[in-house]
Each structure stands twice: as C-alpha cells, then as structure tokens.
C-alpha cells in the first residue's frame, strides 16, 4: 500500500519562521526612500555599497554609494520604526559633503523629490502641524491607508496580468517579454512627461492623456510586431522554442533601451499630486492623491472596455473560439493569425498602461523596470487563474494587498520572497488558480 511520506516542515511553521526573520535588519522601505534622494546630490549611475543602521533615539540609516564623483554617503532619519505609522516620515537628511541639511535646504529637497508629504515630511523647524497623542483609532486608520496604497499597486499588476492572460488564453504559452513592453511604456511616458514639462503643459490633464494614448498605441504596435516577426513563425512548433524566443526578446529590449537611453533613472514630475485628507484622529491622517483616483478610474475603464470588446465584438468571439479550439476555429473561417496578432497588440497596450502608472505615480524608471514587475504580474495571473480575464484582475488585487501590507507591517526587503512564495503555494495546491480552468500545457 502506498504511504504518503511525512511532511517534516508544515507550511504554517515555515510561514511563522519567515515572520520571525522579518523583525531584524534594515527597514528596506526606508532604505528605498533614502536611495531616491541620491540623484539630488550626484548625477549619473550610482552603485550602493553598504546600508547600515545608525544609533540614536530616532531610527536612521546611512547609505554608502559610489558615483562618478567618488564614494560618498547619505544619512536619513525617520519618524518611526517597523510598526510605527511614522516610519515613512523623513525628518532629517545629512551627507558627507554638506552635513545635516538646513530647514530651507530640506524643504527644497522635498520639493525636488516630489514625494507625498506622508512619506517626506517637513522638518521640526519648519513649523509643520503638531501631531496629537496616538489614539485607539490609529491602527485602524493606518490599515485603511494601506488599503488605499494597495489599490494603486493592484492596478499595475492587474493591467499587466491581463496582457499575460490574453496571450496565454489563446496560445497556451507565456510571453515573458510582456514585462519589457511595460518598461517601454514607462520610459516613453517619462520622456513624454518631461517634454510636456519643458513646454509648460505638464499640468494640463488633456496633454497628459494625449501622451498616455500615444504611448499605449505605440506599445500596441510593438506587441503586434513582436507576434508578426517572431511568434507567428513559431506557431506550429511543439516544443519550448517560443519560450526561449520570448526570453531572447526580453533581453534584446532591455539592452536596446539601455544603449539608446543609458542606464540612469528617469524621474518625471508627479501627475495630479494634490493630497486630500479623508479621515483623521489627530495622530494619523488617512490621505489619498488625486492621481490615485485617476489611476483607479483609468484601470476600471480599461477593464470595462476590454470586457465589452471580448463580449460584444467579432474579435472577442474569435478570441473565445481560438481559446476553446484553434483548429476548429480555423475550420469555421476564423482568421487565427489576425486574432493572435490583435491579442498581442491589446496585451501590449495594457502593458503600456501599467508602465504609465509606474512612471507617473512611482517614478524612477529605467531599462530594467519591467523585469521584476513582469514576473510579479505573471505571478498575479497564475494566482488568479491564467487565461481568465477576471482572474487576472483578482490576482493583481491579491498580490497588491500582500505586498502593501507586508511592507507596512514588516520589513519590505522580504516582500518579493512573500510574493513568489505565494505563487509557489498556488502552483502546488491550486495549479489552475482561483478562477482558471484545466487545459493542456500548450507546448
């Protein structure tokens, strides 16, 4: 009789160990915020050499880095630690060449960085609003703030996961170059925003919308070209050649963008960065940016448009027919090549939308932006059920919630481990995802 081998390490035990491990080390979220300030003091590529905590009553860390001007350091002091609602509030900055920044210098740095006030606050000398004592409502308000923050992250993963799931639904194969289409969308959006700023049009919503539509159209053409030149020629290949070709395309896009535009980060000005206070108990205030509402509306509009296209148009019927049986669809007159090419174009446009959100809301885009984001969006598509359009959005929402709440309550340095650990668990215990269906492997 077959006996199941004993499980030495139950999943809940491994999760408990992971939770314990996150309590030590440098707060990665604070390190990332401090890293964003380096371009204000040194231009060109920067290599982080060391990140260390500093002694003192308030949490602080020092980043040692190498730039074209030599080896330097920047020190950032924050208002709280891992579980404190003020852990993202920067209260002081110092460098090896300027010492501690004076109040006016600190204020100018805040304006240059363009970061939300909740993450980069005014120094004590500037007369900012005093906080009251923490109340019993503060943990709940902090929780609500993380829900708002998670919504934006979920939009990025959901839009890109839609691109993955559309291609997989019709071909049964994963296009690993989809993340690079997000990178192209982010880079082009950053360049377009910079051009609008130079022309004095950066504050006009219609101008930004025009850049957004142009970037989506250009990247949709990139997706169509990708299928026409590469994947169509491999359509009848029943091995892993298409997957290898996708990896090659991904590397080619990365290196091409690096050679054309360099390795530096692009930091476009924030779009619609007006902050609105929603709830407050005197100690913690729940806020939201106008851009977050615009991103949610845009994502909802794109999803509704995609649903209408899939349900009400000839392309949607052709896509569903090819997803059910490509051979039978071809026999009844469906133009499979055109349907697949259109799917690549639609996926490319959605990937560009995700890249535009990254550029205008988060900033710091470069030739490597789409690599990790692409794999995370793929994880979201798998968790939701790859091949299912609603599942892609559900997976993006779940991954956004997991990442945001982990970063808020634990060390952000482990959030990628948690994200891909979640993917691994779903592949083991629910390989078809939450809303997926069983199908052939497609290879």
From TrEMBL:
Coiled-coil region: none
Record's keyword terms, sorted: Amino-acid transport, Cell inner membrane, Cell membrane, Membrane, Transmembrane, Transmembrane helix, Transport
Record-annotated membrane-spanning stretches: 147-171, 283-310, 344-365, 377-402, 408-429
Classification via Pfam families: BPD_transp_2
Main location: membrane
InterPro entries: ABC_transp_permease, BCAA_transport_permease
Subcellular location field: Cell membrane
Family per similarity comment: Belongs to the binding-protein-dependent transport system permease family. LivHM subfamily.
Protein known as: Branched-chain amino acid ABC transporter permease
């Amino acid at each position: 009789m077959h006996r199941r081998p004993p499980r030495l390490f139950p999943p809940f035990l491994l999760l408990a160990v992971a939770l314990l491990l996150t309590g030590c080390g440098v707060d990665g979220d604070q390190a990332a915020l401090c890293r964003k300030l380096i371009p204000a003091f040194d231009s060109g590529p920067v290599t982080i050499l060391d990140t260390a905590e500093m002694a003192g009553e308030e949490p602080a860390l020092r980043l040692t880095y190498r730039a074209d001007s030599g080896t330097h350091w920047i020190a950032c002091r924050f208002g709280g630690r891992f579980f404190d609602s003020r852990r993202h509030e920067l209260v002081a900055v110092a460098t090896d060449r300027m010492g501690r920044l004076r109040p006016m210098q600190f204020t100018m740095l805040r304006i240059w960085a363009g970061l939300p006030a909740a993450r980069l606050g005014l120094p004590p000398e500037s007369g900012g609003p005093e906080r009251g004592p923490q109340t019993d409502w503060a943990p709940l308000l902090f929780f609500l703030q993380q829900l708002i923050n998670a919504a934006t992250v979920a939009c990025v993963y959901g839009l890109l996961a839609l691109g993955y799931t559309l291609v997989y639904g019709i071909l049964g194969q994963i296009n690993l170059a989809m993340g690079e289409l997000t990178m192209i969308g982010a880079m082009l959006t950053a360049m377009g925003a910079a051009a609008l700023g130079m022309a004095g049009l950066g504050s006009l919503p219609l101008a930004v919308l025009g850049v957004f539509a142009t970037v989506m159209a250009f990247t949709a053409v990139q997706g169509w070209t990708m299928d026409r030149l590469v994947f169509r020629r491999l359509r009848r290949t029943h091995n892993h050649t298409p997957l290898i070709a996708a990896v090659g395309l991904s590397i080619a896009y990365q290196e091409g963008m690096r050679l054309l535009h360099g390795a530096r980060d692009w930091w476009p000005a924030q779009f619609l960065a007006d902050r609105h206070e929603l709830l407050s108990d005197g100690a913690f205030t729940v806020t939201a940016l106008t851009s977050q509402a615009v991103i949610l509306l845009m994502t909802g509009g794109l999803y509704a448009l995609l649903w209408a296209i899939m349900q009400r148009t000839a392309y949607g019927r052709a896509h569903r027919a090819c997803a059910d049986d490509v051979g039978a669809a071809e026999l009844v007159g469906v133009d499979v090549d055109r349907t697949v090419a259109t799917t690549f174009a639609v996926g490319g446009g959605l990937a560009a939308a995700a890249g535009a959100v990254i550029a205008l809301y988060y900033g710091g885009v470069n030739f490597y932006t789409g690599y990790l984001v692409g794999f995370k969006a793929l994880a979201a598509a798998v968790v939701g059920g790859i091949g299912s359009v609603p599942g892609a959005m559900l997976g993006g929402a779940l991954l956004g919630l997991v990442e945001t709440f982990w970063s808020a309550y634990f060390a952000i340095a482990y959030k990628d481990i948690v994200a891909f650990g979640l993917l691994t668990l779903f592949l083991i215990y629910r390989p078809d995802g939450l809303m997926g269906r069983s199908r052939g492997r497609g290879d």
